[in-house]
Specification:
The structure holds two protein chains of two kinds. By secondary structure, chain A is mostly helical. Chain A is about 75% helix and about 0% strand. The longest helix of chain A has about 35 residues, at about 60-90. The chains are: A mainly alpha, B mainly alpha.
């Protein structure tokens, strides 16, 4: 007689267990991840392609898209330069307080987005530290582009540094020391030795940093003032349209952001799969 | 090696300008009210109700995620099935999807005429615009923390101990409870704590589905925004300081937990 079930190893689960657990996992992911994602696109197309397209080319929507791109174009490169500088000094040198520095760099990840916006209002807002002086000089930071950029920089602050620090620490400093001893300058050592070693991890960090910068809502919401066409980023425009009961418009702009998220996830998975050894050890599956 | 002074100097300057000085501005601000004023501010019934909701809903969401996150990780690490890579990538969706997008999507999904809201309404369960809605959003936002923390640890877990348990006559369930779970527990706790900490401060994915009824479904971060709109900066800062304290507590507790896990290995 043939056994019904193929003999399994001692560390294999019972086939029934496998089916039940897989079903639980799939249903959970379908309910909590797939359905919300599907809702975005389905609601955007509820009144057809034309309605969705019209919502995307409305002047306010275009202004929001432009503002989001400008904000990311300022915040992401600055945080990239910071990430490179921070990981260079943490990974290549020994100094007192290094662990504290690494912890401090991580702070923005554990702070509520609303608090991240609040801190800048308390400095630059009308009743903030510098509010009166700024007003006297006609400088607007809160309810204007600079505030939005600052809040975005705060919430995306650790992304690049956090990818590079563990990787560059693992790589050590032998190669750089060799280059310097052969007469290379600091800058060319960095450009010719360090940068090629970390380029995929850098791209990975920049990718995540950019996704968050374009999608940030809470922090930007506090400092923006919601001035249509002027200080509404894409996520804020989604909120304005949704609260106006313009659901097709809200979900059309939201589906653009959702596509950005999907592209980010795709590229991220590709990097993890293709360059597992060249990005931080924490991402190897 | 060159570049130490410059890179450390730039790092400290940028860190101070963007993060440390603004946080100091927050920490200093509410004390213009004095200790009693600060205390009165954060013990208003509306603030207490918001804190209770934020912590309660976050705790329930984190607990749900610790159970289902463990199942998802187990399936992703131990089983082979078609489309596994896609499911694996999808787990990061809450990290990548802007919170406002998640917020309006969940709200539409659970609204009384939504795909899930309609059948739930028939069954007599209201999710949208109630504290349950807050929990749903916080479950969404917290799942990847549990999965991504646990996944590498389960992947690296040697099967020797499991085999030994099996040869000694343990059932699969006994092996799981006595051998596997104890070695995963500290990491599971870490992931759950991260999900909780993130949930307490979460704003965008919650406010659309919550309905924001004062005393009922109003979360703490929203209260900060309401105070700011009333130009009550000190009141907003007082709540902000409480939230920042919670964040710092978790930041250092998690660092301690990681160090402890590292020392056990």
């Amino acid at each position: 007689m043939k056994p019904l079930i193929r003999p399994r190893s001692a560390t294999d689960d019972h086939p029934l267990t496998k089916i039940v657990l897989s079903a639980v996992a799939v249903v959970f992911i379908a309910l909590f991840l797939v359905m919300p994602l599907a809702t975005v696109f389905s609601e955007a197309l509820a009144k057809g392609w034309e309605a969705a397209r019209d919502a995307l080319i409305a002047p306010d929507a275009l202004d929001a898209i432009r503002l989001t791109l400008i904000v990311a174009a300022i915040a992401v490169p600055l945080n990239m330069v910071f990430g490179l500088a921070a990981s260079w000094c943490v990974a290549k040198f020994d100094f007192k307080g290094k662990n504290l520095l690494v912890t401090l760099i991580d702070i923005p990840f554990s702070v509520s987005p609303v608090v991240s916006g609040l801190v800048y209002v308390l400095i630059f807002g009308l009743q903030g530290w510098l509010g009166q002086d700024l007003r006297d000089h006609g400088i607007k930071i809160i309810f204007a582009l600079p505030g939005i950029v600052l809040a975005t920089m705060f919430v995306t602050f650790p992304f690049v540094a956090r990818e590079l620090i563990p990787l560059m620490t693992d790589q050590g400093r032998d190669e750089e020391e060799a280059a310097v001893s052969l007469g290379a300058s600091g800058w060319s050592t960095f450009r010719r030795v360090t940068l090629p070693n970390v380029k995929w991890a850098l791209l990975y960090g920049v990718l995540l940093c950019n996704a968050r910068a374009m999608g940030e809502f809470g922090a930007v919401s506090v400092v923006s003032g919601h001035i249509r066409g002027l200080t509404d980023t894409m996520p804020l425009h989604v909120e304005v349209l949704y609260n106006d009961y313009q659901y097709v418009g809200a979900f059309a702009v939201a589906s653009l952001l959702a596509m950005l998220a999907l592209v980010t996830l795709g590229l991220k998975s590709l990097l993890e799969w293709r360059f597992a050894g060249e990005i931080a050890a924490t991402h190897k599956h | 090696m060159p570049g130490f002074g410059f890179s450390l100097g730039f790092t400290l300057f940028y860190l101070s300008a963007i993060v440390l000085v603004p946080l100091a501005a927050l920490i200093i601000r509410p004390w213009e009210l004095g200790w009693s004023g600060f205390w009165a501010e954060i013990t208003q019934p509306r603030v207490l109700a918001a804190l209770k909701l934020s912590f309660g809903a976050s705790a329930i969401a984190a607990a749900v995620n610790s159970i289902f996150g463990l199942v998802v990780v187990w399936v992703l690490v131990r089983y082979r099935f078609p489309g596994k890579r896609i499911v694996d990538a999808l787990v990061d969706l809450p990290f990548a999807l802007p919170t406002a997008v998640a917020g309006i999507a969940l709200s539409a999904l659970y609204a009384p005429n939504g795909w899930l809201g309609a059948p739930l309404e028939q069954a007599g369960v209201k999710v949208a615009y109630t504290p349950y809605g807050v929990m749903v959003a916080l479950i969404f936002i917290g799942l990847p923390f549990v999965v991504r923390t646990l996944q590498p640890v389960l992947s690296d877990l040697s099967r020797d101990a499991e085999e030994a348990a099996a040869t000694l006559g343990a059932t699969r369930m006994q092996t799981f409870r006595r051998v596997i779970l104890p070695s995963l527990a500290p990491t599971l706790l870490t992931g759950t704590a991260m999900a909780f900490a993130r949930a307490v401060g979460e704003y965008g994915s919650v406010i659309f589905i919550a309905g924001n009824l004062p005393m009922v479904s109003e979360i703490t971060p929203l209260l900060i925004i309401i105070k700011l709109q009333e130009y009550d900066y000190a009141g907003a800062a007082a709540i902000g300081v409480v939230m920042l304290g919670v964040s710092f507590f978790f930041l250092f507790a998690l660092n301690g937990l990681q160090a402890w896990i590292g020392s056990r290995r």
